Every structure is written in structure tokens, then in C-alpha cells.
Amino acid sequence: MKICPKCNYSNQDYDTVCVSCGTQLSNFNENQGNGNGNYGNYGNPGNYGNPPMPMATNGFSVASLILGISSIVLTCCYGIGIIPGILGVVFGFMSRKRIERSEGREKGSGMALAGIITGFVGILFGILMLIIIVLNLKNFDWNGYIKNMNQNTHNGF
Fold first, then answer.
1. pLDDT at 27
2. Distance (Å, whole) CA 66 – CA 106
3. Fewer Cβ within 10 Å of end Cβ, the chain: N or C?
4. Are strands 10-11 and 106-107 parallel, antiparallel or unpaired?
């Protein structure tokens, strides 16, 4: 058994990374072989190591990218794109922090960065759209609009 130097977890002899905390384990274990730990020039017999673990994509990075892109698309809907933009930025930063802490077991940092960038762009476009809407509503002829609506209802429209 290989004992992890960081968390003292008992791993299998063929493990190269601690199952509990992910710390790299030494390739040579003193307690294997013919009892004295000496293998000559041949190394550890039968220890070929584990195949590399597949890296998982962080779900927050995918969500960040989707929300960032949708924030740009939803900007056309009266600035509603601000909400998914904020969520995309928050999820992007959360994802990058989790990927950094995973010590190589998770990927998706690029997607998270793209989600952060598109989220900020969506927020910017949403704010610009709201400013344009407010400026147009300020100069809008509400009395003429109401007068036309009243005339159209009396004419059968």
C-alpha cells in the first residue's frame, strides 16, 4: 500500500496519484518486492502505473459560456441581456477558481474566460440598449400616441 504524504490515505500499490486528495505519489515504494526494497537496476516489477484519468469539463464553465452568449443575443429584448450577462460573469469566475483548485483534474478554463468576456460584452450592450430606450422614450410624443389610439378604437381598428 502506498501512503499519501499529505493526507495519510492508504492507496493501492499501482496508484500514482492519491485517490483522496490528488497528491502525486512516489513511484518507488519501500515495502514492495523481496522485502528489502532493492530491485537492482530493473525498477519496480509489475508497476506500470494507472492510465491517465480523463479530465472532466467543469459545468460552470459551460454555463458561463452559454449565459455569456445568450446575454449578447438577449440584448435586443429591451436590455434583458444584462441578467444572463451578470450570471455568466459570476459563473465564469467561479469556474476558473474551481479549475485552478482541481490541480489538473478539470478543464474548461478557456470556456470560462470566453463566458466572462461575452458576459461583460452582453452587460455593456444591455446598458447601451437601456440608455437608447430611455432617451427615445423621453422624446416620445405620448399625447399624439394616445390620441391616435383613441381614434383607431373609435374607427373599428
1. 60
2. 18
3. C
4. unpaired
